[in-house]
Amino acid sequence: MGWKSGPDAPPSPEGIAADQNRRPRYAARVFDFDIGGFITATILVSVLVPLIITVVIIGVVVWTIRRSVPSGKDPAIAELRTRFARGEIDHSEFQARMDALTRDF
Q: What pTM value is reported for the model?
């Protein structure tokens, strides 16, 4: 039996050399590194960087708003507690004034 000819024939050494000298089909084959890893890194950076920037901006806005809004503590009640702690008023007077300050009108 001789060598086969046609599409099922094994490639000749000349054919292999010719295939190696051909221009690459895809641009990715021109580079000498794994283009898949580069694409994965690019996608991760293009998704993570905007996400991190968005989270930081939202965090700064929330922090600024929380610092600028009053804490909701009534300064009159704070002063009343301070005076009671110093002993300037007794318990009954403290209780009466606290009831007056916290009463819903």
A: 0.40
